[in-house]
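ARCHIVE CARD
Drawer: 12
Card no.: 0347
Subject: one protein chain, sequence and derived structure
Cross-reference: see card 0346
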Amino acid sequence: MAPKPLTPPILCLVTDRRRSLDAPLAETVALAVEGGVNMVQLREKDLPGGRLLALALEIRQAVGDRALLVVNERVDVALACRADGVHLGEEALDPATTRRITGDGLLIGRSVHSLRGAVEAHNRGCDYLIAGPVYATGSHPGAAPAGLGLVEEAAAAIPIPCLGIGGVNPQNAAAVIAGGGSGVAVISAILSSDRPKEAARDLWEAVKAAWESRPSSLKVASA
């Protein structure tokens, strides 16, 4: 069975329940999806498997089929909650090994921080990439921003969707898309807002407008 299609433009919400203010994470995620998020990466590295699965099931129920759900690194949890994919860090399981475990039914993504890492991830069978940090970000205060160059180089070198992450907001999201990105991934831009639905809508409108203004040839290359 083939995985669900990953259709650009993509607005991905990467979770961090500690930033979800006073609302339960599943509730905040559901509001963000109403605002335009079409992909959710469940990334709660400190949770043990049982609690992570319970949270994944809550989010799956809250989101339904309105957005793709991918689980960070935990292949077992992704399979158990019937997620749409699994997202790997650069030091996580090899994508090819992950594919042998999951079969062909799940999307496999990877975080990359260099052009070399992007090319390797593609060669090892990834379906999409998240590259960054593009801009300075409080989520990774010690990481030097890669700038738009990483997204531009990766998008030009490989034929799978590449999302920019790190310090992305409604004011700079369009630049990521114009540089070749198929979308953006955010954490605090939505989760730290007291109006997550509206925050997601502002981001989605910026991403969608930038995507629609791109030449058709670039859209095909990024899809």
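Annotation on reverse: The longest helix spans residues 196-212. Residues 10-222 form a domain with the TIM Barrel fold (CATH 3.20.20.70).
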